[in-house]
Amino acid sequence: MNRLLVVDFETTGSNPRQGDKIIQIGAVAIDDGQIVDSFSTLINPEQSIPPFITQLTGITDDMVEDAPTIEDAFPRFLRMLEGRTFVAHNAYFDLQFLQEALLSQGYYTFDGYVLDTVELARLLLPMQNSYRLGELASDLDIEHDRPHQADSDALATAELYMYLYDVLQRLPLVTIQRLQMLVSSFRSDIQVLLRLVEMEKLVELPQLDENEGKPDSHMWDVYRQLALNKAEEKLEASLKRPQFDQIEYKSFDELLEETVGEQGSLQRNVASYQRRDAQEAMMRAVFQAMHDGVHLLVEAGTGTGKSLGYLLPGVIWAKQNQQQLVISTNTIQLQEQLFHKEMRALQQALPFSVTTATLKGRGNYLCLRKFEQALDEPVEGTSQEIRLVKGQMLTWLTQTQTGDVEELSLPTTGQLFWQQVKSDTGSCLNRACPWFSRCYYFKAKDRAREADVIIVNHALLISDMQAENRILPPYDVAIIDEAHHLEEAATQHLGKQLTTTQLLFLLDRASLDKGGMLHRFAEELTAWLPETKEPAKELIEKWEKVSIPLREKVQKWSVQLFDWASKRAEETTDAGRETVRYRVAMFTGKSERIKKSAQKIIQAIGEVAQIGDQLLQLGRTEEKPPFSLRSLRTDLHGLLQEMQKGMELLHFFLLEQDPQFVYWMEVETRMARKQVHLYAALLQVSNALAEPFFAQKQSLILTSATLTVKNSFTYMLNQCGLDQLPEDRVRTLSLPSPFDYQGQGLVLIPSDFPLPGKDTEQNYLDAIIQGSLDVVTAAKGRTMLLFTSHSMLRQVYQAMKERLVDEDVPYTLLGQGIDSNNRSKLIHQFQTMERSVLFGTSSFWEGVDIPGEALSCLVIVRLPFTPPNHPVYQGRAELMKEAGKNAFMSMALPQAVIQFKQGVGRLIRHHLDRGVVVVFDTRVVESRYGRTFLQSLPPFQIESGAWPTLRQQIPEFLGMLPLDDRNE
């Protein structure tokens, strides 16, 4: 495997057996880790190239007219391939074309080794967000200037392979050996490659001087045949709290001047720092609220410097009062940004040291004991996807310091496997576990307990409230950033959910497969206590008798539930799922069998759990069992707890519903898997937040760039239950952005566009497509389009792609869910590529920060109202109607205004930015409520009128910025 040929074919389609042909060959030869030769040629396929292939590759019929045929080109290519391993990205696509071409030319088919760089990258780069060649090349700084051109693709794949081989060589021997056991059934010959690397490492071992110790011992912590990344030693040292005598006698004003004043440390140590009046006003208000023991809502406009505006006063107050400060964010991106960037910058400027830790919910952390057990399960009978996931996690252990699942890029199967190996209370051995000192969750808890500042997410904050403050260290003061999401996070995490796939996976874990957890528990038990052999055998037989037909029942019931839901479901999310609100009373007539089947399933799960409990009791003795048995017993106990939870959820969702909740199902009708997601949400979250949270805490600071509607905090106060507290316990502060919106921004609202829902859908769509084309060509790309529906995004994207293909200078279209699902990658491409256009749905309406000329135009296709048929909205609207309130004015409109403000806020991110917002939804000027949207915006120039006139203002407005400023 030291001699390889990296290959890429461009083809007329995807099926060589149905006549698709090769139109370009790219090949790169690698010998002993060095590129030694390359070959590329266009191929005349002797048939027309389909338009979509031309659009993808840029290869036209004219270009291949004089090119060699496959018969003429193959001899040179085959001489290069002889004696080499065939390597390609998604190798079996290219291999099928190779084999078909070989047969058609009278050659024998290729029978050498095959390596797939997709499979290899998934195994060795488990923290990648995407395994597409273009995105891997971008992440790894591999030059790849012409995607979908065979020569460029082959060269990029060759560079990728050499990078991956280097990663493989750096892995510890024990990991290489473990991986070999998992990849034996893979389609490509990764096992052979691993064996080669293993032999190289074994040859090196005797050459090591005894005094040198183990190879790479400074990098790996090898324990119980697993290699872990050695955490930095300095991390432990930094956990000790520093003394704060030097600040306890200084006033806040003195410390503020020392830090942010004209001669302050921030001016000296942070190059990008600018003193801002609004930021200092926020700092004083935050500190005063904490000092006075009141809650504070702060709306801080873009450019205020919100993060520092709450971090500095929060840290000073916490240190002076010897208390911990909790900071909660909605997104992991901001959580990471606060931890790695903002706190680091603040630390440089403070006259005292601060320790910071992040903490997430327990289920985010890997349980090493469970993972060790999962690796010990027989490989036979395990799906290739699960083997790959186990392999990814083995590699990940050598890279991670946190054990946090958010780092991993897991497929759907992997997300289910995670449920088996995540940390949880029910199956934790605590200090009796051999992995305790290395446990990711307990290490994170230790860091949090000792830190001055703990950064969490809203989900954990809500979970801690539910658990009566048993998750986080005790705290009285917290800062909630992205606070406009608090009510939404509470809705999600105070609610309940269950999927039919989760239920089936739970039963799979309870199966009696040889080598499975239950089988091994019985074997270990009877080996330790031989007298339990007969009763254990009887119980296992009983388990099998109930559990095998139970899985079939659940499978059949899942299909029935899917059929019932899909017939009634409507599209209400931009994620492509369809939704149906339901009540148990709806299961009548033929549908009553769904309820009856659920009851039988609950009963059968109960029987299995009872048998499992009897099995556990067999091992209860005075004598301490061996660790392997204790470990399996703990896992069985955890499984029985999950079964109990599954029974309770089934009862909750399908037998006896709680009137405080709204219930619905979601299905994905376009997917092959007939999976049903069951959800329930509290109708009144504000009540759940008011008493156990806001009333109990000393001071909570809620902040965001969007907390007001028409300059009023009323909506946010109502949503969070803060209106239920005494008035003197709550303060509000609105700080405007320092930007000159009047001069920097222009809002255009065409008055001659079709109204959504009033005109025909096609007329409306045609107007949006043409309007978007007008904006994009006027701004020469540099445009982001925000949608509320993924289906509309796809339609507009496809139409624009077809119409822009003939432009002299090409445009780059980047669609969420089309070109990538990774927001960061799409934004990076958008910023770095010429004439680029970015299409996004909900996640792009906020948290996107693209300063400068790269984003000059923002198109809001439709006002972001929650679909009126969404179950949560419907349930709450009904409740409001009963209370004599107007649900549209009290809930739908404020929600949409806040989302609209977030969307518009993507455009002006810097005092030198200049840009145009185009709103294609004419309701913003034609409806009575439309002015609420406009009155909630910063003071932009706003123009409305006929589109042909308005669109002429785009290049004129953008062209006014001096070139020097635009490039700054």
From TrEMBL:
Reaction catalysed by this enzyme: ATP + H2O = ADP + phosphate + H(+)
Record keywords, A-Z: 4Fe-4S, ATP-binding, DNA damage, DNA repair, DNA-binding, Exonuclease, Helicase, Hydrolase, Iron, Iron-sulfur, Isomerase, Metal-binding, Nuclease, Nucleotide-binding
SMART domains assigned: DEXDc (SM00487), DEXDc2 (SM00488), EXOIII (SM00479), HELICc2 (SM00491)
Pfam families xref list: DEAD, DEAD_2, Helicase_C_2, RNase_T
NCBIfam families per UniProt: dinG_rel (TIGR01407), dnaq (TIGR00573), PRK08074.1 (NF005981)
Similarity section: Belongs to the helicase family. DinG subfamily. Type 2 sub-subfamily.
Highest taxon above the source species: Bacteria
Any Gene Ontology biological process: DNA repair
Gene3D superfamilies noted in UniProt: P-loop containing nucleotide triphosphate hydrolases, Ribonuclease H-like superfamily/Ribonuclease H
Function as written in the Swiss-Prot or TrEMBL entry: 3'-5' exonuclease.
Motif (DEAH box): 481-484
Family matches, as PROSITE patterns: HELICASE_ATP_BIND_2 (PS51193), HELICASE_CTER (PS51194)
This protein's name: 3'-5' exonuclease DinG
Source organism: Brevibacillus invocatus
